[in-house]
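User: Hello! My lab partner asked me to get a predicted holo structure for this protein. The small molecule is S-adenosylmethionine, SMILES included with the sequence. Please write out the structure tokens.
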Amino acid sequence: MTRRPRNARRVEFGDFQTPLSLAKQICSLLVRQGCQPASIIEPTCGRGSFLLAALEHFPRWQTVLGVDVNAQYVHFLETQLCDRPGHDKIHLAVDNFFKRDWATEIERLPKPLLVLGNPPWVTNATLGSLGGKNLPKKSNHKNLNGLDAITGKSNFDISEWMLLEMLKWLNGREATLAMLCKTGVARKILQEAWKQELHLETVEIREVDAAKAFQAAVDACLLICKFCPQSSSRHAEWFSSLEAHLPRCSIGIHQGRFVADLPRFQKWEHLAGRSQIQWRSGIKHDCAKIMELQKEGARYRNGLHDLWEMEEEYLYPLLKSSDLAHRRIECPRKWLLVPQRFIGEDTLQIRESAPKTWNYLKTYIEHFNRRTSSIYRNRPPFSLFGVGEYSFAPAKVAISALHKKLDFIPLGRYARKPMVLDDTCYFLPCSSIAQAESLALLLNSSPAQKFLGSLIFWDAKRPITIEILQQLDLNALARELGKEATYLDCVENPFPKKRADLQKSFSFPSV
Ligand SMILES: C[S@@+](CC[C@H](N)C(=O)[O-])C[C@H]1O[C@@H](n2cnc3c(N)ncnc32)[C@H](O)[C@@H]1O
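Assistant: Hello! Below are the structure tokens for the protein in complex with S-adenosylmethionine.
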């Protein structure tokens, strides 16, 4: 039997109990906002801080329901509540959120409803690594479009799924949801709720200091959704604390776009459209120890510290997001072995064209076989992703996807080879460094920065995405800057798309 880490159960069940003081602070905020529930529901109540605080703050309650999978917690809470007046209307149960028939139960409860609490903070990836089973059964919930989108993803928070379920129970009723969660989770939930046109009246996201309350290094918030059958609001006010009177910004859906700063987006809306040049992601290989090499004289050292001699044909100077973020671009630290020019290309030809490289790759084939991602399954050996003619464009305008700044960097060749990027970067392929420099100027201009900034959620793990970059209309931007004459050429004559054009425009001389 494999041994589980000592706190594995705590991690599996996302068990971070809310301090009573924070639960009280949240309840008094809800009271100030006019919340007067008849039914109070805590679907993962733990030791019951929220229920204890709610009983103190909402005098008109008629029924209370608390559920948790942890029997010790529920029994502890029972001992806290058994002597209270009206305890016969407080229903506690040891049960699994994923197995309970919530919809029927909630239908019967007196309205208005308040669902509050703090669902588990754990991702399915963490559960997978612990061998945990605290997951929803996907097949039971086909009717929830967003769920498929969420559970189909490689990594999702268990609370995302739980919160989407709770929104479904409350939709069309007079109800309030007040839940602590990661800000990233709140955003995803709202995006889905707005897409599904749920009947939301008002939504607030209020930042909470998770380090103080839970000793957790995450961006957390209180998500408050007020439902009303006649309403269909599509925006949320974002406050920097529980106490703040004025919102820091307003997020929402505008003309089908998910916007991080609505007033700012509206100011720069005329730049919205589709980029005339397709933004690309860098090369994905998932085998850094073998594919990323350091040049030592005429040889290359890999991540296992082995030194190899190889043909230069398949080696390219590599830049990663950290290089871009620190503008370390003059002299790339690493080289990337790129065995394919396009996705799915047969790699067997390397045996003939570059026997030393083939020998190198074959020596480490086990490292490639260990790549777990399904994208590499049934593909030629040593396959890559995010590779195409654009990867070898002689110049690029690149940006780090992981850093929290909009800094577009023009890149040319190095050692007479095009520089390549890894999948932590995005870029526009260009046919010359002059074109890359012009585009970088355009993209680093204030209007471009303000427009893109209005779409970016800076607290996200990967704040800058291709979808966001692609929404900036380069023609409109050139017009805005009065630079049409200078920029039109590069916007209208991007990196050649046809293979024949490509070969004409640049070649790949050896280093
Ligand atoms: C972040 S803690 C919060 C507890 C409580 N809501 C609070 O605010 O103090 C998450 C709680 O979810 C419970 N939990 C985890 N998975 C559950 C499941 N599948 N069904 C019911 N409760 C669950 C845990 O036992 C834990 O008490």
